[in-house]
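Give me the fold.
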Amino acid sequence: MIYLLATNNPNKAREIRPMFEAAGLELITLSDLGLIFEAKEEGKTFAMNATQKAEETAAFLRSKAKASDVLPATHEKNVTFPVLPKGSKPDSLFSCDNIAVLADDSGLVIDALDGEPGVDSALYMGRDTPYDIKCKNIIERLATIPDDKRAARFVCMLVCIKPDGSRLMTEGTIEGRIAHAMSGECGFGYDPIFYYPPYGKTLAELSQDEKNIVSHRGQAIQKMIGLIVNEGTGNK
């Protein structure tokens, strides 16, 4: 079985791929197939969004399974796929019979902001707004809030849809608080303002290995890998 991560975010792929490889599982992305597809996120919960992204990406792949050996250059709404050379690995994957789709939805929940940005974490202040600006805005909004009122958590829901339509779902959560200033260069998104008390650092100050052990996404992924391995479907 090959696992396709339904994301166009290279940071997520860089975070997740080593964890799958360590378990002997093959993880690919849409870009590995020469494809770009942006699933919608219309749900009101992380679980709903993760499920929608997995379902829409799986349907998109099935629609492309009928493509010819050499995919034609074309453009559709939210979709771009180029000409691929015959015999390349992407061509051999388009049967979809051996591809399970993985999709996650995650976000930052801040108690003092009544749960914001929550499921709208990626859309907060606009999808194209740089995260350093988003982080600074949150810090400014919490400027007068003391440490004991700055509780926050990252939440991740991960959904896997297998070729037969069956699905798995896991969840991960990490508790912390919002820092008073951005710190760290190793993470992405809101990591520089998420202070994790057990380590005395923000998530952006942790190494990738340290982060994968404790992070919301790392927890959800490890749980998913456990389910896959226990089912014995990992390398079939």
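The two ends are 5 Å apart (CA to CA).
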